[in-house]
Design the sequence.
């Protein structure tokens, strides 16, 4: 289900049943000449579109603008960089509204600079906002010293479960480290990411433009294929099936 298409009663029912609410978090970033600038976000929504076919989810409108950095190219390349603190503040306000609104099974699914599960600026931004919201929410609703109270004597037994408040919001990469290995590779605008885009939004890839690419990271994009992309989508879905519960 897409959140923007849902009516109030449907949203309330999903919250009560703790249906996963999934927030795609990506960037607008230069992906050489052959792939669209929305790649980071679109591969998330494309994979979630496939997961929706087999599992009940509430997919929220994505956050397109992220902590892209200018590591790949400056603003003249079309990359839009949001400062980490501003991104964290925006996410904090959004997550605070969702948590106080009763959504207690939230997943922030990211795709940007997540090679081998690296804690890069956008990942840190998401974790920081999520933890700040939960700490404040618990203090506001349960009072100071909530964790140390006897009401939470089963805290360690409930770790990772729906009764663990720090599991109300989970930050996960679109492709886990294990899934990256199963896919066969991971890159930016090269063979692997281009293939993943071809497996989700093939109309947003034009391999005939690869001859205009001069950057090292895009040189093997000519080896991308829809068949490899479908394999990668399968690896991603296997990971997401385990991670989103």
Sequence:
């Amino acid at each position: 289900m897409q959140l923007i298409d849902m009516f109030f009663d449907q949203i309330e029912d999903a919250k009560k049943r703790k249906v996963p609410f999934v927030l795609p978090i990506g960037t607008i970033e230069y992906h050489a000449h052959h792939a669209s600038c929305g790649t980071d976000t679109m591969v998330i929504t494309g994979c979630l579109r496939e997961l929706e076919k087999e599992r009940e989810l509430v997919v929220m409108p994505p956050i397109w603008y992220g902590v892209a950095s200018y590591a790949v190219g400056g603003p003249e390349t079309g990359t839009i960089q949001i400062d980490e603190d501003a991104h964290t503040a925006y996410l904090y306000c959004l997550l605070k509204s969702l948590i106080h609104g009763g959504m207690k099974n939230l997943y922030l699914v990211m795709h940007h600079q997540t090679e081998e599960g690296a804690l890069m600026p956008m990942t840190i931004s998401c974790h920081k906002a999520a933890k700040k919201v939960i700490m404040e929410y618990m203090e506001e609703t349960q009072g100071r010293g909530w964790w140390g109270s006897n009401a939470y004597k089963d805290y360690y037994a409930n770790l990772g479960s729906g009764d663990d408040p720090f599991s109300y919001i989970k930050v996960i990469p679109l492709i886990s480290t294990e899934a990256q290995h199963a896919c066969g590779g991971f890159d930016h605008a090269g063979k692997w990411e281009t293939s993943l885009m071809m497996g989700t939004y093939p109309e947003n890839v034009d391999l005939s433009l690869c001859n205009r690419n001069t950057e090292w990271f895009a040189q093997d994009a000519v080896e991308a294929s829809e068949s490899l992309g479908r394999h990668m989508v399968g690896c991603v879905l296997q990971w997401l099936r385990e991670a989103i519960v």
